[in-house]
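Practice problem: predict the structure.
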Amino acid sequence: YLHYAPNETIAGLEFDYIPEVDMPLVADMSSTILSREIDVSKFGVIYAGAQKNISISGLTIVIVREDLIGNVVANQPILFDYATQANNDSMYNTPAIYPWYVAGRVFEWLKEQGGLSAMAKINETKAKTLYDAIDGSDFYSNPVAIKYRSWMNVPFLLADEDLNSLFLEKAAANDLITLKGHRSVGGMRASIYNAMPQEGIDALVTFMKEFEKENA
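Answer:
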């Protein structure tokens, strides 16, 4: 099998295509599932932690092609055999009930928004709003090639990294939090999953422009 993650959250990289391979394709979609429509028939296994676009932590969604269920190695722990879950309606053992409940409410909300095709348009617009603000400035920059930029995780750098702490301090004062980039890449990172509305993006862009005027 070939395993990959369609969206990489730290550096903000995203595949804009599904790899064509002659073996089962396994995808970790934790950070991109439900952000748009996907053709599940092209995958052998899709799995996703719930904590970004589905629910709170404590739940994992797994979609397995039927012909792959039951093909486990010898001495495989019973709970790691997908047949165990498939044959017991995912309730072989007591599930985490509250994350299931929250997921159900999220699924209802997604339908109210118009489904995944509508969410794709919303997410594309949110990302474009933020990337346009970054690209239209000499004060901010994004190092990722446009073709491979993530819709969900938007990293950006300040021209003067000595201003990073001040940026975060001022942002927090404007109720814009958790913008610090991952320690391995530095800078800033805006994670704009499904739950982030367009208004949140607009507020961030407005703050970024004001901060640039004051500190450029």
